[in-house]
Specification:
The chain has about 350 residues and is of the alpha/beta class. The strands form 3 sheets. A 7-stranded parallel beta sheet has the order 3-2-1-4-5-6-10, with helices on both faces. A 3-stranded mixed beta sheet has the order 7-9-11. Helix content is about 40%, strand content about 15%. The radius of gyration is 20 Å and the shape is globular. It has a domain at about 5-190 and about 225-255 and about 290-315: NAD(P)-binding Rossmann-like Domain (Rossmann fold), CATH 3.40.50. The structure holds nicotinamide-adenine-dinucleotide (NAD) and thymidine-5'-diphosphate. Nicotinamide-adenine-dinucleotide (NAD) binds near residues 16, 86 and 104. Thymidine-5'-diphosphate binds next to helix 6 and strand 8.
Length: about 350
Amino acid sequence: MSWKKHLLITGGAGFIGSHLVRLLVQKYPEYAIWNLDALTYAGNLENLKDVEAAPNFHFIKGDITDAGFLHDLFSRQHFDGIIHLAAESHVDRSISGPLAFVQTNVIGTVHLLEEARRQWADALEGKLFYHVSTDEVYGSLGETGFFTEQTAYDPRSPYSASKASSDHFVRAYYHTYGLPVIISNCSNNYGPYQFPEKLLPLMINNIRHRKPLPVYGDGKYTRDWLWVIDHVEAIDTIFHQGRKGETYNIGGNNEWKNIDLVHLLCQTMDGLLGRPPGDSASLITYVRDRPGHDRRYAIDASKLQNELGWSPKVMMAEGLAETANWYLSNQGWMDHVTSGDYQQYYERQYRH
Ligand code: NAD
Ligand code: TYD
C-alpha cells in the first residue's frame, strides 16, 4: 500500500498520545501512523489495544534522548509530519528529579528537531513539526485574566521550565532554519488512560480503595480542565489547518478550584459505587503544599476558535462521569499501572 502521508507521533503510548494515535489511525486510513515511544512508567501499549492490529499503525520502541537511535530511524524512514508529545509530564516528579525533564523535554526535543531539519533539508513543502506544549509555560495567574498567545513566558516549576525551553528551541528552528513548525499550549486534560499520579485518576483510585484524598495546601488552586478527546481533535485541526510558525492556545473554558472539583468527583463516585452521599468526601485530607505551586491557570482559546472554528464539546459533568465510569470499568488497567514502581512513588510523594 502506498500511504498518502507518513506521520510520526512521539509519546503515543501515553495519556494524550494514545488518544491522538487512536483518532489518527481511525480517521485517516490513508496515512501511516508511526508511534515512537520509550514506554517509560507513563507509557503503556495497553492504551492502544484497540488499534494495534490496524494496517496503518506501526509501533517503534525508542528513546528520543538517544541521538544514534533517532538518526538510524530517520535514515531508514521518511516522515511528512511529526507530532511531538513525548515528555516527562508530572510537576511533582520534576520537583524531586529535574534532570530527567531536561534530558527528555529539552535535549530529546532538540535531537528530534535536528533529525527533522536534516531529513527535510531539500524539501520543506508539505512538512510540519508540531510541538505539543502546556499552558504552564506562562506561569501563574492571580484571580483574574487569561493566558493568550502573547503572554510572556514565566515558567516556575522544573517541568514548565523544561517545556518552555523546548518551545523556545522549536521557535528557534523556525526562525533560524525555516523549519515548518506549529506549537500548541493546552490546559489540564482529563479522561481515560491518564496515569494515576495526576489529580483526577489518583483521587478516583483512592476513593475506590477508601484511602485519604490528598488535597495540596488550601485546595483553592485553580485549573482549566479539558476533555482529552477535545484536545486531540484540536491537535488534528491545527495540524491540518494551522498556520506555520504560529502558536495556538487550547483550553476548556472550564475553571475549577481543586477542592470543588474533588467534591464533584466524590459525589459522582458515591453515585457510581452506591455509597451514601458524603462517604467519599469524608476521605478528603489537606496535605503539605507543592513547592512553588502555581495558583491559577486559565486559557483564552479565542484565536483557535476564531481562526479554525474549534471549541470544546464535552462539559465537565458529562466528562467527569465518563472518566469515573471508565476507571471503574477498567480496574485491571489501574491495577496493572499501579503494581510496580507506583507504590514507591506514592510512598515518597505522600509520606508527610
Ligand atoms: P504522559 O506522561 O501520559 O505520556 C508521555 C509519553 O511519553 C509516555 O508514553 C512515555 O513513555 C513517553 N516518553 C517519555 N519519555 C520519552 C523518551 N525519552 N522517548 C520516547 N518516549 C518518551 O503525558 P501526557 O499527559 O500524555 O502529555 C503528553 C504531552 O502533552 C506532553 O508533552 C505534555 O507536556 C503535554 N501536555 C499535557 C497536558 C496534560 O494535562 N496531561 C496538558 C498540556 C500539555
Ligand atoms: P496535576 O494533575 O499534577 O496537574 P498540574 O500540576 O500539571 O496542574 O495537579 C492538578 C492540581 O491538583 C494542581 O493544583 C495540584 C493539585 N493536586 C493535589 O491537590 N493533590 C494531588 O495529590 C495532586 C496529584 C495534585
